Model the fold of this input.
Amino acid sequence: MAEGTLGNSNSVQVAKKTSKLAIVSKFRELGLLAFIILLCVAVQARNPSFLTMENINDMITNTAILSILALGMMLVLITRGIDLSIGATLALSGMIAAQTVSANQGLHPILAILLGTIIGIVCGIVIGFLVSKFGILPIIATLAMMNIFRGLTFTVSDGQWISSYQMPESFVSIATSKILGINTLIVIAVVIYLIAFYFINHTRTGRQIYAVGSNPDSAKVSGISQTKILMLVYTIMGGLAGLSGVLWVSKFASAQGDTASGYELTVIAACILGGVSIAGGSGKLSGVILGSLLLGLLNNALPLLNVSPFWQMAIQGSIILIAVIINTLVKRGVVRNNLLRRKI
Amino acid sequence: MRRFLSKWAVVGLTVAMLAACGDQKTNQGTETEGGEASSDGGTPKYAMVFKNTGNPYGEKMMDGFQEAIEEVGGEVILRAPDQPTAEGQIQIIEQLITQQVDAIAIAANDQDALEPVLKKAMDQGIKILSVDSAVNANSRLVHVNQADPERIGRSQIEAVSEMINGEGQIAVLSATSQATNQNLWIEWMKKELEEPGYENIELVKVAYGDDLRDKSVSETEALLKSYPDLKAIVAPTTVGIAAAGKVITDKGLNGKVIVTGLGLPSEMASYIESGVSPAMFLWNPIDVGYGAGIASYALVQEEITGKVGESFEAGRLGEKEVVEDGDGTQIMLGDPFRFDAENIDEWKDVY
Done:
């Protein structure tokens, strides 16, 4: 990001020479986008029902929750952290929200969403506290909390599932209703992304997240409170996971103790695909959207292609690998180009 | 990733267990004597080990087991690991051996991984039987089978044929492609489809939802798109059938595509009431647990030893016979139970 703005100011002088690459440099995830388009064309050639409005709608709806979680994970990854507890947080908030609505059938769905988000925020604050105040490694702290939250889910549910007949129609319809003809899940995801876009790119705190991630020492010297920023990103992550928990339970109309078990890995994969660096400091919203989309696309397309289930996982892995390689190659070219321009 | 990790964990454990078994050989003699002494005097102890905690199906099975043991008299020990792993069950079985129980009924998380520890238990005079999900023939005396796999497969096809009037395309939505139970049932479904009377039914695809909500939903959506004339989805798995029911409901295809298979009554209640799924099947887990309890008792009393042809009085389930099952033997509990709009109300709160 930082180099991006630097490159732009320099590129005025050499605009004629490198105009094409300069455009590329503004959009580093081009490789990923090109790959997604290629994949779409290939799938469409094999199954014409792929690029229909209905299927695209299904696909984006199914990707909405993943993309919301990936956004939170991006913030955590930028600060050089990782959050393994989100699947468990999601299950816990989903379970408590489901139990609440099944006990109070008249509860407004917005209150259920709020409740889930608050539970997630509390979970996030606990992790943020462990990471920022005690200085526990994020991977250890979140691993421990993952088990604690998962255990709590089993405890509060007493091992029972909450099934669709116990949920009021209003709650289940969170995920099936439409706002302006668009599925509510998609609308929620878009709104969250718009807010995040403003927050990350146009507020001081948003920029400080990148500063803490790319160079913690100089961030500290320049007066940025690392504790505050870490606390903030884990709280946001927790809140988003809590929100996703309610949406998940509403979408599948069932809450069980092992909901979204292992889902954190899918979320991290979406971030990595989208070019977020595990080493911290870099990551863009556009990349995360594309990363989530690619995973959503694979989940949607592979069943349509009629490939053997034995191959599905291997194919999915290979496609992710190829996408990352293409993305890295394009990025490397862009970075080299930026360095060249800096010489002048 | 998880699967990869768990595979290595299993490999590591097997090695550890083999090493542990080596040590055990030396002091086996004395322990055996102790074990027998306890089974002669005092109340016999019957243990049941389920796959994992927090599984409503397992809770019901353990209730049934308890009911049976209370009926015949004895101490009940109900255990299950937090996660559905073989290593968790191995630890529990080790503890049960130390507690000198008389019988262990186990719903196994892995067919082979438990063999060393179960053999060790049997060497010490503990009666081992598997229930619901079998262990291999070497590591058990008998298996209590929830329902005859042949009947499970065939009943589902009979039911779906009746629902679509014997004509049209059907698809199967299963759990994982390696799931032993599901694959066996699907085999029997295919055999049933070859019988006369099903000439107009075409099985277009067996899809695998891996027992994950999101994947099962994607697979169902793909089935509906790839086969626009699809008449029915048969899902012999709890998560799959509920996911299919949800997709059909959301897409407003109620009446056009029907859903049936095996599912939990509570999960399926709303879809059975709305007519998306006119009927579905499952065995009664309480009866499965009860059957296992009575069978444990019969083994401990040496009424049966787990050989083909033996029979015993299984309380309210009536007389049961030990029959052949591959290399080993098993006790079949009967036909799966049919849930439909008539009876779902009384079952949806049970499990």
